[in-house]
Protein 1
Amino acid sequence: MYDFAPDRDLPKPELYRDVLSAADALTSGEPDGVANMANLAALIWQLVPDLNWAGFYRMVGGELVLGPFCGKPACIRIPLGQGVCGTAAASGQTQRVPDVHAFPGHIACDAASRSELVVPVIRAGEVISVIDLDSPLPARFDAEDQTAFEALAALIADRI
Ligand code: SME
């Protein structure tokens, strides 16, 4: 059993210090990428408040394919350049979207989603995956969330 003693009311610096430390401990030395993505999705879901979806899409054969996640069943394949995830994967740039309804081409997997943060995971210069977070709250994600998840993406790039 892993118990990371979640305190979802922590201020963000402490919360994300805990998330990164737990993510490191969970994935360090484990070579199986699916197992690591599954545990990371569960960890984010457990520790990060106000999410309705948290997980991974992986780059497979030139498109994004659903990976381990927590939340409602989601669309399985996303072409590069489409939706928030496909835009992040095609550009290699984090997409922080305060209002998904205002994002051209947003793909609605869960009607409850109002804002979204998608962070590319880059290994050896290639986007290999994206971390996708959806929230039912508008403008849920700020620059601090973005910086923390970009640090998480860098930490796990060789482990998924
Ligand atoms: N909203 C995403 C699709 C994935 S779901 O949010 C899980 C997008 O526009 O790419």
Protein 2
Amino acid sequence: MIDLDKFSNEPEFQTALREMFSSLDESVLNNPRYASILDKIVEPDRVITFDVEWVDDKGQKQVNKGYRVQFNNVNGVYKGGLRFHPTVTLSILKFLAFEQIFKNYLTTLPMGGGKGGSDFDPKGKSDAEVIRFCDAFMKQLYPYIGVDQDVPAGDIGVGGREIRALYTSYIKYSGKSDCSLTGKPLDLGGSLCRTEATGYGVTYFALEALKTYKNTDLRGKQVIVSGSGNVALYCLKKVTEIGGKVIAMNDSSNAIYVPNGIDFETLRALKEDRRGRIKEYKDLVKDEVTVMPSKDIWGIKCDVAFPCATQFELDENDAKKLFANGCIGVFEGANMPCTLEAANFFIKNKVIYSPGKASNAGGVAVSGLEIEQNKKGEKWSFEKVDERLKGIMSTIFKNCYNTAKDLKDEYNLVKGANNYAFIGIAEKMLKR
Ligand code: NDP
């Protein structure tokens, strides 16, 4: 058995380990074949840390911390996003990289687990400052990445602008053009449907789950999507396209409640083109819009919720409110947005609940397809990538659901995802 107390100075990482090990079936946890790998599976292969020195618009030198966690490559090259946010710590990146090992295995594509980032905050910085920061970050990171080694992508705070800058600097410093980042803009070898992939993927996962558990879909459903970044926006778009109504979204400052439904293009332009705040949506539409504190979003009555903002944004009290208001499904677009207590509450009360490592795997799956296209020198149509994404999300759901059913805990997709992926990774580690 692993002593999880030794990770008490890394609370987010410890929570991820607790989530995994508390959900493993006795037959897996006590399997003598896996005893030798338990200690190994919780230790990253390599952690790279560095200072990022860059110059702001006033000519002042600034220094941030940079990291890359290469956790486990038994299933393929290290793969996982870069996060730029002032809250970034090694504990958060280890939690995300650990999750990524199992998420990537679930996609059925050959990718291992990694994650990286910086405590740099792109918010409020000029484009020139962001580009100078990205250049300085990549100057430190480039020796450790490569298409057969480690392929980063975006995450919170790292969107199209940052990936363009990072990839341009990668080419400059490495002298290579080997597509060692994904989520690239199309003109630099990116894949169609990568921008949409995580938000569309979590919606496809929800459709599979709603059909299987409740014989229903999203048409006519009142939906909450938290966040208003990449994942949330494209979840809004897909849910709306298939007939659901997204009535509330938020950012870290405010939530908006729009009984007539939030308009995708208006919000996309506000967030992506103008980098505005969500409360400004009120000034852009004629509909009734109520602006409230961000956290109040979970008190709004809905049928289905997609937490798509950040870790631990939905606690047990929020879970109780959603349940009392009749919510039948909670599908994680973000990484671990529900606390363990909230997740357990949903499972106990038979609210369909999907852990992020299963339902938000669409983004990394299409990153895997981007690598495949780059290696083959091909460019696939949007429809082809979208079809592959649908197929992958359906396979992920079925593998998690069937495992949960085999373990006689049908509503426990956490058990389903964790046992299925843990056994897969453990077997590969034993073979190696
Ligand atoms: P973005 O940076 O594009 O958006 C993050 C959004 O979450 C912003 O709207 C941000 O608001 C909001 N937010 C942050 N903290 C809070 C909070 N405490 N309460 C409410 N809203 C908050 O990130 P992504 O959309 O890319 O990522 C969102 C989540 O999805 C993360 O957990 C990420 O790890 C996960 N994920 C992302 C994938 C991807 O392909 N992008 C793939 C798989 C998972 P503000 O502007 O105020 O900070």
